[in-house]
Amino acid sequence: MNQALVPYSETSDSDSSDSNYPKKCKRRKRGLQVNKENWFAVKNKRLREKGQSYLGRIKTDGKWNYEKPQRPKQMKIRCSCQNKEKSVMKCAIITEDDRKKVFNHFWTDLTWGEKKVYIDNAVTIFTTKRHRDRKEENKSRRSQSLCYYLRIDGNNVRVCKTMFLNTLAIGRWTVLNWKNNFKISKISSNLRELKNDRAEPFKSKKEKLNEFLDSLPVMDSHYCRASSSKKYLLPEWPSKNALYNFYVSDWCKSHSIEPLSRTNFNDAFKMRNMALFRPKKDECEKCASYKVETVTEEDYQLHMVRKKEARLEKDKDKKEHSFVFTADMQAVFMAPKSQVSTLYYRTKLQVHNMCFYNLRNNDGFCFLWNETEGGLNSEEFASIWVCFLQEKILPTIDTKNNEIIIYSDGCCYQNRNPILANSLLNLAVTKSITIVQKYLEVGHTQMEADSI
């Protein structure tokens, strides 16, 4: 029985109360139990798979909507083959009841994958024995031919192509696409020339798209450079849609070319291993792994205990000591920041900001530099730490209370390396003070320095 479907628009409101509409969200939490059976897309695909009436896509006012009714699959009329004794085709011995059984089995009992296997087994390939090119002798448009069989009462009965396609209610290209190891050996010269004529403009447009993507300033990941080779665009673009609109409305118009589709744009963007600037991992990796049961209960509980201990230790030091700081590095940002095309493509500088925050009096200190003044090596960070302590903190320390505690994350090239440790040790020995470094638990390094 056909199920009625309500037309669905891809741009419909994601807050709809109808359970048939999936909530549109960019990310879904792994391990979350979602009832997909009530989704419109799932129901629609299932109806199409079973050969029933479903809703197809149609573009209206520039938007794709699921509101085009498609007819259910119906068995077509049989071929006109007659029962001849010497004929290899046995179409005439197949009754209408046999055809209905084959049709119902194909569309009711089989999934898409099983349908492809069915077609692959029901169609055989053999080398073309008789060439049919009437202009040139011993030449043919193809080197392979197909034999079609219908399974009747457990036996394979050879039939003609019309009988086979009409019984299963499928098209010729469906068989050719689903049949393994089938190749069209020769394409007519007119068709080849037509394809080449269509391919040339597309090739030119794709080269221009690659030129556009290569012109975008990119930077390495700040938080994930050890585990990611992606190149990140500037934070001016909140989404791929905004970047695509910039490509269409600004770059293509200025170069007087026709833009490619959104699909081609996304494919080229992905091939370059590029991404928008959102590399920071907000969710703890171990906590996320525990939700999908890839981390044991014992390891997770130990992880949570260490997180609580680090938080309690920071709160305790904040109450008992006068000089307690949190230190963190801000994400890389570019200067100047603008979406105006003439200014956007100007040479830009990567700007870095190292922040220190005093937990006792809420004082904040920011050390900014660009890529022409220094990089992101441990030597630069050691210099900043020593400069901060010497110029901002040591002049205010008395001889009785000379202990300084600094909390940070465990980033190796910033806060946890021998160069920084030796620099702080040298400063502590020279100035007769005590410097204590404490690291928060990995994945839970949110601290007060993030506010500045």
Report on this structure.
By secondary structure, the protein is an alpha+beta fold. The protein has four domains: 8-70, no CATH class; 91-178, no CATH class; 189-275, no CATH class; 296-451, Nucleotidyltransferase, domain 5, CATH 3.30.420. The chain has helices spanning 40-49, 96-109, 112-122, 161-168, 172-178, 189-215, 240-255, 262-271, 285-291, 297-320, 341-344, 378-393, 412-415, 418-431, and strands at 8-9, 54-60, 63-70, 123-127, 144-152, 155-159, 218-220, 231-233, 274-275, 324-329, 333-335, 349-358, 364-370, 403-408, 434-439. The strands form four sheets. Strands 10, 11, 12, 13, 14 and 15 form a six-stranded mixed beta sheet that branches. A hairpin with a 2-residue loop joins strand 2 (54-60) and strand 3. It is elongated, with a radius of gyration of 34 Å. The two termini are 63 Å apart. Residues 11-19 and 184-190 have low confidence and may be disordered.
